[in-house]
Amino acid sequence: MSKREESIEYGPLGKGHDPLKDPMKGIRGVMAGTLVMEAITLGLVLTVILRVDDGIYWTTFNWVYVSAVAIAHFVAAFLQRFSWSIPMNIVLQVIALAGFFVHPAMGFAAIIFIIAWAYLFYLRSNLIDRMKRGLLTTQHS
Questions:
Q1: For site-directed labelling of 133, which of 102, 114, 125, 139 has its Cα 20 to 30 A away?
Q2: CA distances from 100 to 2, 43, 76, 96, 105 (A)
Q3: Is 4 helix (H, G, I), strand (E, B) or coil?
Q4: Minimal CA–CA distance to 114: which of 61, 52, 41, 15?
């Protein structure tokens, strides 16, 4: 037994077995859904930059940037099964936050989703910790 395994405090029923249904699959589904919602929200920024201030923000760079970021978020939703999806999600959030330079509305939308992603990562780490400690009900059935 390694030192790390000795320091894990298991639940009252012990370590248990691997869950029959992969709980990480559910988290990946929530992450994919969040990316789709974010893609839709960022796509709606196009209407903001077109209509606010008589379209002064409607430049080629701005609409291409917003469209590319929204499409990248949508495509990323289908790539959540890969191990590199977490770093990709973080990079997408940074790119969306850079949208402050396009229009503040895009930056504010990005901040809201960054908060949502921080909570998702907290839930993911909590789930992994509970799996290690044998605290999931599906590990004892």
A1: 114
A2: 48, 15, 21, 8, 7
A3: helix
A4: 41
Q: Quick check: 66 and 102 in contact, CB under 8 A?
A: yes
- Model confidence pLDDT, tens digit, residues 20-61: 777 788 899 999 999 999 999 999 999 999 999 898 999 999
The 3-class SS string of 20-55 reads CCCHHHHHHHHHHHHHHHHHHHHHHHHHHHHHHHHH
CA proximity to 107, closest of 75, 138, 58, 62: 62
d(CA 97, CA 59): 19
**Encoding tokens for residue 93?**
């959030």
* Interatomic CA distance for residues 87 and 94, integer angstroms: 11
Q: Taking the model in full, what pTM does it have? A: 0.84
Contacts of 114 (CB under 8 A, 6+ apart): 93, 97
User: Domain residues of the chain, as ranges?
Assistant: 23-135
Query: Tell me, what DSSP letter sits at residue 15?
Result: S
